[in-house]
Amino acid sequence: MMGCNVILLLKCLLISEFHSHCSSLSHPYHFVNINLNWTDAQAYCRQNYTDLATIDNMKEMKRLIESVGSDYTGQAWIGLKKGTSWRWHWSSAEGETGYTNWAAGQPDDWDNNEYCTEFKDDGKWNDISCSSQTDKWYFFCYTAPTCKDGINATWNFTLINQNMNWSSAQNYCRHSYTDLATVRNKEDNDLINKMVTSGTFAWIGLFNDTWEWSDLSNSSFRNWKMGQKDNKNNACALAQVTWPGTWDMTPCDEKHPFICYDDNLILVNRTTTWNEALNYCRTNYLDLVSVHNEEIQYWVSRMAEKASTDHVWLGLRFSCYLNFWFWVSAENVCYQNWETNNTNFCGNTGAVQSKYPHYWVSLPETMQLNFICSKCPSMTDPRTQYLQNCQNV
Q: Could you tell me the domains of the chain?
């Protein structure tokens, strides 16, 4: 029992100085009830907040709607605008993962109308029309793991044996699961392929468009109203602020209220040691960022893409005395995203790769890297209860 108390006391000493209060890492939305065109709304948000709203999933969409309140039930600008470059994205907002498995000669955009992807019975992919009344297939949904599922939990893919077009399949998956399937690597592709019988085609979540977010994020989340016509005159996105918050393609010179967001993560594009980064974040913001689930990992990855160094410091440190990794902000290391063959050495600290696949790596604390600060802890602050436990040691 004494040994357990000593370990708990050491853990408490590691974290007790980091106690603070805040509620959420996800960026807060701000509804502005002023009628402006899209460009003026963008300028207003950039001057007073961070930018026009970026939305990454249906949970974010729900939070955006809640930020507006019940007094306004119309539509509002968000930060999505048509660009000029066609890109393939995943429905689950991950942008491009780097892995593809196109069939020979694909994608070919036959008849200039093939913007979605079907999974063939040989495991290869083919681009195809999203909304054709004749191209209706089965489809794969996935459910993302949560922290309580354990460190080694994987995405759970489900084949839905109903024939739908791509948009209807996407709506079904978002309502009943997480989203249409994202195929991140060969292991995912092989797993899905085992579920496809001979002669069966099925939708996955890959699609092609030119739309871009105002803050230049690579988020590929879309929530278009069914039947939207993508043409050059309707180049900005207008969101309905009542559930399910679907979006219209609208001329950018129309005047509407709009929604801004603030970022709770800050990439500091200067090179420092880990300790210097820690001191900078605590002096100017709250702390070096903690990554305790896949959602926060996504936000950190998105921020790290803008770094000027190959890796970016996290608030992760190895304890020589207790032989474990800990977040300096006191959250449990439940979710992990380590690169294989990672080493645990005294004096090593944690960083994330700037580019895909954004694994964590163990590096000497004296290296000079960019770093990410947080304005708020990444969840309802767990330190109060932990520090109460410390008082009883």
A: 29-261 (3.10.100.10), 264-391 (3.10.100.10)
SS3 192: helix
Residues 353 and 277: their CA atoms lie apart, in Å, by: 16
| pTM of this prediction exceeds 0.70 | no
Question: What backbone phi and psi angles, to 5 degrees, belong to 89?
Answer: -130, 170
- Is 79 within 8 Å of 52 (Cβ atoms)? yes
Single-letter code of the amino acid located at 30: H
User: Residue 319's CB: how many other CB atoms inside 10 A?
Assistant: 14
Q: What φ, ψ does residue 317 adopt, rounded to 5°?
A: -140, 150
- The pLDDT tens digits of the residues spanning 142-155 come to 776 554 444 444 56
205 near 170, Cβ under 8 Å?
yes
- Secondary structure tally for the chain: helices H, strands E: 8, 19
Are the C-beta atoms of residues 249 and 341 closer than 8 Å to each other? Answer: no
Which DSSP state fits 310? S
pLDDT of residue 6: 39
Answer yes or no: are the C-beta atoms of 382 and 373 closer than 8 Å: no
Type of residue found at 52: L
Kindly state the tokens that stand for 162: 């109903």
- Taking the alpha carbons of 296, 298, 301, 303 in that order, is the dihedral positive or negative? negative
Between CA 245 and CA 225 the distance in angstroms is 9
Task: Please enumerate in sequence order all residues whose Cβ is within 8 A of that of 41, keeping only pairs 6 or more positions apart, or say none.
Answer: 32, 52, 77, 256, 258
Greatest mean pLDDT range, 150-154, 238-242, 360-364: 360-364
Mark 226-259 as b/e (b = at least 16 C-beta within 10 Å): eebeeeeebbbbbbbbeeebbbebbebeeebbbb
If DSSP codes are grouped into helix, strand and coil, which group holds residue 385? helix
